[in-house]
User: Fold this.
Amino acid sequence: MLKLKTAFRRKKISSPGYTVLNRVKPVRGGKYFFSLLLKLIEEAEYSVHLQTYAFEEDETGQLVADALISAAKRNIEVYILVDGFASQGLSKAFKQKLEEAGINFRYFEPLLRSKYFYFGRRLHHKIVVIDSIRAIVGSMNIANRYNDTDTEKSWLDTALYVEGETAIALQEVCWRLWLKKRRRKVPEDKKAIEYAQSIPKEEQVAVRIRQNDWVMQKIEISRSYHALFGNAQDRIYIMCSYFLPGKRLLRRLRMAAARGVKVYVVLAGTSDVKTAKYAERYLYRWLLRNKITVYEYQPTVLHAKMTIVDGKKFTIGSYNLNGLSAHASIELNLDVDDERTATMIEEQVKKIITEDCKPVDADTYINHLLRPQQFLHWLSYQFMNFMLMITTFYFRQRE
Assistant:
């Protein structure tokens, strides 16, 4: 690993922390994502790390579990780490089936929890790493609602497939979290290093891993967003679920719009958390007054978490623009500095806006302030802010 990192230092990279021996490909959620996931598991040669927030015991969960069990029976080392709250519905029989096949399975536990109460960090990131060579980082969990089934279309999710140095580093992230150790020397994987070094120059993409984790004193994703908004010159596309940014990020957006940057925010038309959706809509008036264009995605629930700036840089992963992701959850994003890939993703977002979104009516949220819905939105916004305040107060002090 040391030799590879030394080689990176000789290369000219546009921003600190980026490595360039990477190959990437955007991945949309639904059937395509799960087909790719199953293919990667099937092709694994010696290890699979899967870390996710929600793993459910439905058809999709069973499908992924069967693939992992098959891999374990081929003597592949399989590690599954799931959040102790979001995945608490898994039955003992399901977990026993995994463990009997030789899979290393455990929950990421908060400080205190019950069926309805949770205090402590959430394991919110979604990572799959295969053989230290290939990886996927995105917004989708393992459950039917993230997949396309015979009866239902999947939620809108996004991810990034990556090969090379970033996959090696993601393997280290997974190991450290699995072993509950802050620092650990992971043995060099010569095969993975050789693979990264074999990526042709014309395919190389600058990528860096960004994390938020208050125990580790990491607020890297938050800083990435501040830098992206602060340095934007022409346009910003935000696609986000549960959109409740703090005052500092809202100020960054307002300042960007004031200097002529076109800001487009794509949010859920229908949300799985109604109170969060009502709270988002309370922000519409502020966004529209600051010349920020807002769209609502119509076909299903929007669950993606991604921002593209100037068609040159983007960040993608598990991080929501709200206080919970900023201060209380373990989150992981990938920042990418590559105009070709950023332009490709931006075009996909534009297509989604054109085909599947409705623009938010400015007249409804600016001129009609006494509508009952506005009061409901205000009440939801105050409630969500209060809940975020009491659950993240300690974490904010540390920042």
